[in-house]
Structures are given as structure tokens and as C-alpha cells.
């Protein structure tokens, strides 16, 4: 079961990566460079801090959760 | 059963992402014909050492490189150096605003379709290409690093002496 | 422990080559260049946060700051610090009943009372927490980056230390970025009065028979993922994380009441006037799997972001989180960003609202509402404005959590809500500037 999920995940990632048939040229990345297209590290850290101590899930976004005695 | 449900889920996920991405995509006309000026650019500069720099207004290091390139043009223009900065902004007004805030002191050309950029294989912003007096590409630099400035100036001097 | 979120890492590094993500605003509002360049290598992003639950429950005031210093275009040092001041009361897991109840404080040095019909809350929760972490990130060659960091945080009864590392590599003309990270953490807990013996009963004031010494746990996290630019306007990212915790995972302040199978009232405890409330007992390990995906899309002026996270663990908790935000660039200087979040989780296998007197004790049990079946919604907005030197922002959100308990409402419990809804307000003021 776990192995299947992992394999499907890898296939999905490979499929996404192969969609570089949509290779966007570096100079066409003007919109991606915009500040509102970047994640906001401070807001994310604050959200994580709030939800970590109120719910049973934490992290999974790209941080490890933790560092507080409240859960 | 786990397997077919999972496959269906993955298909739905990829489909959702594809739909979301394509739904809002504006139709745009693609033209691969370079404006005449750009095509004639390099042939007219034969005999000069050309520093061809590809930049855009949204690129931080480009802003830092401008004063340095302006200085180079000032110092070595008489010796035969021509700095040409090729702007790749999709929106011309942003380039204009950038140039108002950061004056150039060298020649600016516009290549919003990226024809010249593709020809020179630009993969990062900024990219500088140094072309010698015979029209050969001698150097390529990706990005702009202050630590490299002195060395780059030295190699330009060498090319100017040729 | 923290693994830096992808965007901040790339944004910091790629300022040398604007590879994946540059950091200038689209309009040359030269006034507020809040991304670091060598001309202004420092960026300070700070926020003051107020979190307040309704009904005398938890209130938190915290100050958080991320300070980053760029060196040499492709290296930077980032220091995060935060200070939190927590006050207010939190449910202990004990059941309400139709008469006044007396409980012993976790420290063993005092007692507190709960009115008839009220949910027992313990306000021993007053505390100040300090956290500090530092991360060093740099490029390796043209297309790779590495980030390593350490973290520590402390409350008066708790200490965490940790280390983390993350590696990223670009492919496909930097349209694809693969990343992997790992984090280790070690935490020790030493509450006043000692950690409770699992399933031991709450004793009277001054009696430490149910308490023992300090304890600890270790946490290991790993993640791998990929971000893919789909078009000039869209990108998607997919991350898989695995986390395993080992050691003391109980909440030393939580109990499970033992109730009479007919009346629903807590049976008598080891001392007169004290009910029988057993300290909770959770497994000593927990393994979590999470899959997270995010899609971002840029319009000509605005942008939208949608994300989803699925989490499942070996405690029986499965959760779904769906978040969306729309960034409306009202003008070159101002934006409003409405946001919404939906959350749902299933109960942990060992979650119980109470234990029934006379029935055999289960292997594990916890009445902590945070392990119950619940759903929550957050709605709010963020407003930002560029000033001469930076950007000022305000965030306001409303959080409502509703919990569902499956245990039958025996006897007097029929008149009470064993896990009432939780509502909270989040208010945040932030300022970001570079110099």
C-alpha cells in the first residue's frame, strides 16, 4: 500500500517534471518574480504556530512542525 | 480496492491543475520573426568589442549591473567597446520606469519575443555575452557577481587590444 | 524545528541570477525595495500577533522577527526569533458535571474549582516562550542550493533543540526544482510537580504519588518535493513529508475522567472532594505522512494561491486542509488579500471523552479535544501598504473550530457539551524593511 503510494507519487513528480515541454523561458518569468507570487515566510511561520497547538496536524508544508510544549 | 482509486485520484489531481492553469491562460500571438533592427544589430557592430547584456526590469542583479556597465562604456567606448543591453520585459512600460530610475549610459534594444535571447541560449537573468571584433562569442556570464567585476574588466581590455 | 519554506530560500539565493524567482516588485516603486540586494543586504520582517480565544480561554501575544543578511549574492544568514506570552485557560479533558468540582493544579501546590455545568479549564498555562533559530544558505554551483540551520526554544518547563538541512536543485532551464530536507529535534519536558504517571489518578494537593520526573522525546522529519513552473503564469508544487516522534508524547496537563455508567458523574477519587481523573496515556511513538500541494497563478495585476494538505498518522488521525488566498494588488503600493482555510480531522484511535467505571482500562486514552474529530474554518484578510522604507501590513482572521464527540452522553452529561466550539480572533501587525 505504502509502496504503491510512493511509486505513484514519483510517477506524478516525473510527469510534472516532464511537462517541461512547457519550458518557460527565463525572460518570460516576469510574473513569477513578482513579490505576491512568493510565499511569505513570516506568515507561514505564524500560521504554523497557531494551528500546531490547536489541531492534531502540523507541518507537512515544507517545514517540520514543533518547537513548542503545547501539543 | 486501493490501487484503481489512487490512480483515479492522481488523474483528477493532474487534470485539476491542468484545467486551472489553462482556464485563465490568455490567448497570445507568437511571432518568431525578429524585428529588422535586431537582426541587423550584430553585423553593424563588426570591428567593435560588444558586451551584449540580456536584462529585465524585474531582475535585481540587473539593477546592480547597470552602473558597472555604464562605467565600462564611459571608459572604453573610445577604445572600441559597445555595451548593448537587450531588454526582455514583456511589458515595455516597466522597462521605461526602470530606466528612469536607473539611467543606462549605453545602448538599449528591445527583444520582448526573446528571439535574440533564444539565439544566444539565455538561461538566466542577466546573461552577458562578450563578442570580439570578428563577431565571435568569446565569453558568457550568467548572473552578476561583484567579485567577478575586476576579472571581467581585465578580459575586456585584452579583447580590446586585439 | 523549521525547514525553510521553498520560496524564501530561492528568493534569497536567486537574486544573483534571477533563476527561478527574482525579488523586485513589477513596478519600479523604487521606494520600497524590500528584497535584499548587495546595496541593502539586510531585510527585517517582523510581526506582532494577538491570538485570543473566546470564553476566558487561551490568549497569546507574540512578537516574531526574521532578520536576513545577504553576503556575496549567493549566500545569506537568516535569524528568526520569537517571544510568546501565553495566558488563559485550556480544557483539561475532565468532564463537566452538575456540581462544583475541585481539581489539583498540575504543580501539586494548589487547587482550582470549576462551577457546576462548566467545562473544566486549567489556567496554569501562563507562560512565556522564547524561540531562536538560525539558517545559513548558499549556492553550490549554478543550479543547486543548500540550507542548514539550528533551532532552540524554551518555556519554563520545556526545552527544544534541533538542527535541519535542505538541498535544492534546478532542472529544465530552472523550470523544475527538486528539493529534499531533513530535521532532527530533541525536546525535554520538566513540568513543575513532575510529569504524571500515565493512567495514575489526580491526587490531592501536596501528594506527588502520581508524579515522576522529567521526560523527553525526539523528532525526525524528512521531506522531498518538486516545484514545477507550468506556464508564464502558473506554478505547482508537490511535497511529501514523513515525521516520526519517539518518547514522551503525553500532555502532562490533560486528564480523562472516570464516570459512573449510570449517572455520568465522575466517581470518587483518592481523596475526599476529589473526583477520579486519570492522567492521559498516549503511545510513545507517532509516525505521520503528509502530502502537500500548492498551485499559484499570476494574473496581470493580481494573483491567487490554492493549497491542499493530506495528513495521516498511526494514531488514527487523518486530516485535510484546504487553503486559498487571492492577492488583489489594488495599486502599486497597496494590496488586500482575502484568505480562507478549511480544516477537517478524524479522531485519534484512543480519543475518549471519558472512561467508564468498571470497564477495563484501554491501552491508551486521551480526552484532549485536539485529538477529537473536528472541523475548522478560518476566514480573514491581509492588507499591505508600501511605505518609504518598507512595507507595513495588517492581518485579521477569525477561526472557528467545532468538535464532534462520539461517546454517548451518559446520565447528567446529556445536558452538557463535552467539547464546545472554539472561536478565536487573530490580529497581526507587521513591518518589513531593508537597509
What does this structure look like?
The complex is a heterotrimer of chains A (71), B (162) and C (435). With 71 residues, chain A is an all-alpha fold. Chain A is built from 2 helices and no strands. Helices cover 41% and strands 0% of the residues of chain A. The two termini of chain A are 29 Å apart. Chain B has 162 residues and is α/β, with parallel strands linked by helices. Chain B has a domain at 50-161: Glutaredoxin, CATH 3.40.30.10. Helix content of chain B is 47%, strand content 18%. In chain B, α3 (60-76) links the parallel β1 and β2. Chain C has a single domain, classed as Beta Barrel (Porin), CATH 2.40.160.40. Chain C has one helix at 6-13; strands at residues 42-53, 59-71, 75-87, 90-91, 101-104, 111-114, 121-122, 127-140, 144-155, 158-171, 176-189, 195-196, 211-212, 215-229, 234-247, 255-259, 277-279, 285-298, 303-313, 318-327, 334-345, 355-356, 373-386, 390-404, 422-434. Residues 1-34 of chain C have low confidence and may be disordered. The interface between A and C is large, with 52 and 109 residues.
Strand content of chain A: under 5%
Shape of chain B: elongated
Main sheet summary of chain B: 5 strands, mixed
Q: Rg of chain A, please? A: 18 Å
Tell me roughly what share of residues is in helical segments of chain B: 40-55%
Précis, in short:
With 71 residues, chain A is mainly α. Chain A contains two helices and no strands.
Task: For this entry, give a set of tags.
heterotrimer; A: 71 residues; mainly alpha; 2 helices; 41% helix; disordered C terminus; B: alpha/beta; Glutaredoxin; 5 strands; elongated
Q: Layout of SSEs?
A:
The complex is a heterotrimer of chains A (71), B (162) and C (435).
Chain A: H1 2-18, H2 41-52
Chain B: H1 2-23, H2 36-44, E1 49-55, H3 60-76, E2 81-87, H4 92-101, E3 107-110, H5 115-119, E4 127-131, E5 137-142, H6 149-161
Parallel strand pairs in B: 1-2, 2-3
Antiparallel strand pairs in B: 1-4, 4-5
Chain C: H1 6-13, E1 42-53, E2 59-71, E3 75-87, E4 90-91, E5 101-104, E6 111-114, E7 121-122, E8 127-140, E9 144-155, E10 158-171, E11 176-189, E12 195-196, E13 211-212, E14 215-229, E15 234-247, E16 255-259, E17 277-279, E18 285-298, E19 303-313, E20 318-327, E21 334-345, E22 355-356, E23 373-386, E24 390-404, E25 422-434
Parallel strand pairs in C: 16-22
Antiparallel strand pairs in C: 1-2, 1-25, 2-3, 3-8, 4-7, 5-6, 8-9, 9-10, 10-11, 11-14, 12-13, 14-15, 15-18, 16-17, 18-19, 19-20, 20-21, 21-23, 23-24, 24-25
Amino acid at each position: 500500500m505504502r509502496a504503491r503510494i510512493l511509486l505513484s507519487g514519483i510517477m506524478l513528480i516525473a510527469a510534472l517534471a516532464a511537462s517541461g515541454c512547457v519550458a518557460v523561458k527565463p525572460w518570460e518569468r516576469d510574473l513569477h518574480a513578482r513579490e505576491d507570487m512568493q510565499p511569505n515566510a513570516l506568515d507561514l511561520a505564524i500560521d504554523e504556530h497557531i494551528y500546531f497547538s490547536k489541531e492534531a496536524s502540523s507541518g507537512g508544508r515544507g517545514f517540520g512542525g514543533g518547537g513548542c510544549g503545547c501539543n | 480496492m486501493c490501487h484503481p482509486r489512487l490512480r483515479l485520484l492522481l488523474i483528477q489531481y493532474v487534470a485539476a491543475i491542468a484545467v486551472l492553469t489553462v482556464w485563465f491562460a490568455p490567448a497570445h500571438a507568437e511571432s518568431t520573426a525578429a524585428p529588422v533592427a535586431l537582426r541587423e544589430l550584430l553585423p553593424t557592430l563588426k570591428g567593435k568589442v560588444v558586451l551584449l547584456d540580456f536584462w529585465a526590469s524585474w531582475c535585481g542583479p540587473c539593477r546592480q549591473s547597470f552602473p558597472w556597465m555604464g562605467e565600462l562604456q564611459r571608459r572604453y567606448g573610445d577604445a572600441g567597446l559597445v555595451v548593448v543591453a537587450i531588454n526582455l520585459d514583456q511589458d515595455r512600460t516597466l522597462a521605461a520606469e526602470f530606466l528612469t530610475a536607473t539611467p543606462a549610459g549605453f545602448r538599449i534594444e528591445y527583444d520582448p519575443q526573446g528571439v535574440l535571447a533564444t539565439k544566444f541560449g539565455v538561461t538566466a537573468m542577466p546573461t552577458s555575452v562578450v563578442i570580439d571584433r570578428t563577431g565571435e562569442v568569446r565569453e558568457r556570464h550568467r548572473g552578476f557577481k561583484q567579485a567577478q567585476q575586476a576579472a571581467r574588466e581585465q578580459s575586456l581590455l585584452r579583447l580590446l587590444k586585439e | 524545528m523549521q525547514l525553510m519554506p521553498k520560496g524564501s530560500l530561492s528568493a534569497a539565493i536567486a537574486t544573483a541570477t534571477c533563476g527561478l524567482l527574482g525579488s523586485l516588485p513589477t513596478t519600479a516603486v523604487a521606494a520600497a525595495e524590500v528584497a535584499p540586494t548587495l546595496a541593502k543586504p539586510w531585510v527585517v520582517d517582523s510581526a506582532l500577533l494577538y491570538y485570543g480565544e473566546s470564553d476566558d480561554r487561551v490568549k497569546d501575544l507574540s512578537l516574531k522577527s526574521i532578520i536576513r543578511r545577504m553576503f556575496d549574492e549567493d549566500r545569506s544568514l537568516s535569524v528568526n526569533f520569537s517571544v510568546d506570552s501565553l495566558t488563559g485557560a485550556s480544557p483539561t479533558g475532565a468532564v463537566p458535571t452538575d456540581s462544583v468540582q475541585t481539581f489539583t493544579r498540575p504543580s501539586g501546590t494548589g487547587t482550582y474549582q470549576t462551577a457546576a455545568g462548566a467545562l473544566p479549564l486549567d489556567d496554569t498555562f501562563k507562560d512565556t516562550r522564547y524561540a531562536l533559530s538560525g539558517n545559513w544558505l548558499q549556492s553550490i554551483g549554478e543550479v543547486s542550493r543548500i540550507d542548514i540551520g539550528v533551532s532552540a526554544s524554551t518555556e519554563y518547563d520545556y526545552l527544544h533543540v534541533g538542527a535541519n538541512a535542505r538541498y535544492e536543485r534546478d532542472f529544465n532551464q530552472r523550470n523544475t526544482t527538486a528539493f529534499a530536507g531533513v530535521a532532527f529535534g530533541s525536546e525535554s519536558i520538566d513540568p513543575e510537580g513532575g510529569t504524571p504517571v500515565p493512567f495514575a489518578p489526580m491526587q490531592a494537593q501536596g501528594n506527588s504519588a502520581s508524579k515522576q520526573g522529567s521526560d523527553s522525546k525526539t523528532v525526525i522529519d524528512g521531506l522531498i518535493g518538486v516545484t514545477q513552473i507550468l506556464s508564464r503564469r502558473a506554478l505547482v508544487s508537490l511535497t511529501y513529508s514523513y515525521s516520526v516522534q519517539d518518547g514522551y508524547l503525553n500532555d502532562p496537563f490533560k486528564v480523562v475522567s472516570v464516570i459512573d455508567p449510570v449517572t455520568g458523574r465522575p466517581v470518587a477519587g483518592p481523596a475526599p472532594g476529589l473526583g477520579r481523573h486519570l492522567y492521559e496515556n498516549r503511545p510513545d511513538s507517532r509516525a505521520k505522512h503528509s502530502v502537500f500541494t500548492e498551485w499559484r497563478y499570476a494574473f496581470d495585476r493580481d494573483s491567487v494561491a490554492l493549497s491542499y494538505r493530506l495528513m495521516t498518522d498511526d494514531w488514527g488521525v487523518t486530516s485535510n486542509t484546504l487553503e486559498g488566498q487571492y492577492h488583489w494588488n489594488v495599486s502599486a503600493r497597496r494590496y488586500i488579500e482575502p484568505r480562507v482555510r478549511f480544516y477537517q480531522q478524524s479522531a485519534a484511535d484512543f480519543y475518549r471523552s471519558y472512561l467508564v467505571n468498571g470497564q477495563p482500562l484501554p491501552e491508551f486514552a486521551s480526552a484532549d479535544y485536539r485529538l477529537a474529530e473536528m472541523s475548522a474554518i478560518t476566514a480573514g484578510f491581509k492588507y499591505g501598504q508600501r511605505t518609504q522604507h518598507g512595507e507595513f501590513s495588517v492581518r485579521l482572521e477569525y477561526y472557528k473550530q467545532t468538535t464532534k464527540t462520539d461517546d454517548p452522553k451518559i446520565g447528567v452529561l446529556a445536558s452538557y457539551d463535552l467539547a464546545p466550539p472554539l472561536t478565536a480572533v487573530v490580529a497581526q501587525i507587521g513591518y518589513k524593511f531593508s537597509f
